[in-house]
Amino acid sequence: xxxxxxxxxxxxxxxxxxxxxxxxxxxxxxxxxxxxxxxxxxxxxxxxxxxxxxxxxxxxxxxxxxxxxxxxxxxxxxxxxxxxxxxxxxxxxxxxxxxxxxxxxxxxxxxxxxxxxxxxxxxxxxxxxxxxxxxxxxxxxxxxxxxxxxxxxxxxxxxxxxxxxxxxxxxxxxxxxxxxxxxxxxxxxxxxxxxxxxxxxxxxxxxxxxxxxxxxxxxxxxxxxxxxxxxxxxxxxxxxxxxxxxxxxxxxxxxxxxxxxxxxxxxxxxxxxxxxxxxxxxxxxxxxxxxxxxxxxxxxxxxxxxxxxxxxxxxxxxxxxxxxxxxxxxxxxxxxxxxxxxxxxxxxxxxxxxxxxxxxxxxxxxxxxxxxxxxxxxxxxxxxxxxxxxxxxxxxxxxxxxxxxxxxxxxxxxxxxxxxxxxxxxxxxxxxxxxxxxxxxxxxxxxxxxxxxxxxxxxxxxxxxxxxxxxxxxxxxxxxxxxxxxxxxxxxxxxxxxxxxxxxxxxxxxxxxxxxxxxxxxxxxxxxxxxxxxxxxxxxxxxxxxxxxxxxxxxxxxxxxxxxxxxxxxxxxxxxxxxxxxxxxxxxxxxxxxxxxxxxxxxxxxxxxxxxxxxxxxxxxxxxxxxxxxxxxxxxxxxxxxxxxxxxxxxxxxx
Length: 655
What we know:
Number of domains: 4
Largest sheet: 5 strands, antiparallel
Structural class: alpha+beta
Number of strands: 12
Number of helices: 21
């Protein structure tokens, strides 16, 4: 009955207590196993120290005999002193042996003896513990007996040395007497060697016995850990399997879009609570999906109202989405183009999506389009790439520039009307750019409304259920919130990007004064990062003050942000005249940029690092590129990974 009660308790107790109980049992067993292991290692280490000590003892004894024999031959007092120096090792071990044989030994004296015997101080405590703990063990006892028998023999060498010393230092030393004294050494050496062999043999046998004992203990403890862990795991898993299986079936149904399948709650424990919360989360998810669908529909409506023909293609170049203007420009219905390659519209494969999307994003290129009836005409394409769960996608806004080309031909043919026609075309382009700016504003404004709705619902879910579900559900909620925040940032950055260059009037801009203003604006960031910024004499240029200030600010901020860990940023700014342009250089000592990414960093929304490492939306350098091009220049970077970067850009020299 008692066993049944224990199983019932384990089955009915909360999952948290089951886990605490299981972890507690396993931790106790593992602690026992670790204790046995530590004890075994320390004991074996002590045996090893005794073996090493025996070697030191034997070597010192042999060296002492060697110098004693040398003393008998050469009568050099230095050999006699060497004899006493080497005999300090056996004498120190003797001190320890005598002390440890006492009922209440003085441990400091025992330690000092072993240290005088040239044993390592870190081994001394273990050697003493082994002597006292295993004194009664058959093998250790044999070793101690051999040591005890050899120890008194050592002091006979002192008697031999003293007799030899007196004879050599007598007024008339006799060589025969010296030889008789020396003849006593070899028998003593032979007898001591026997005890040394017995000591080593006993320690070896004891080591093997101890090793077998340790292996048996470790096996028993390890087996106990495995059996106990397996038993507890089976008990716990069977108790929660039924509830989790029900939740899993409901999750599969939700994954297929069936929100009518609800998870049954069989109990009121954590599994039952999880089932009820899962059902609530599924209801909220259904409402969120409906909101996303509505947002997608609104996006498609905005796309359809765009003035240009727009298609979205995947990495293979297959068209995934097309707006109404595609039919007006190319003659294809939208459904005819879905999953068709973009070369259908471009005549030949003039556009490599995976390459062009990275290198030409944000710029306009001119290609030859082909209508459904086979007619070819010039088109202007603006590219932008973005990442999705399905991979990289490329948006291509295509505009029929047949009229533009016709006007260009007329201009070449009629130089007299050149100025008039250029002004006319410029006006047309400005009008269309205004339309695009208006479209970007309307798109960003209308996209924010469903995004705010979705964010509100997700925040409600987070407040009510965050921390009450499993870790996966919490992670999903965090993903949705992070994605909504990133979408808000991207929409704002995109709107700011489209507004660059709206300032119509250029001015004389003193770059020295402008740099001072930027450094004041960034003063807090500079002080927090202990950045050091130096600049040479900078020129006065003709340009847009706001955009140029943003250019300097973005480049300095980037150098501070991408600094090496633990190294304060150092930024140097210089300029020089070059081929009708002012050439600026911003050098830093940051983390650098691998050569394969040095074109990609100027593409809008392109990032080289995870947001958890370096914040930002990836639009700063795209702003810089657009500003430089607005001033008739170009921008590039020279860098190697880990070696800092130098950003170069040119501005037209009109000052």
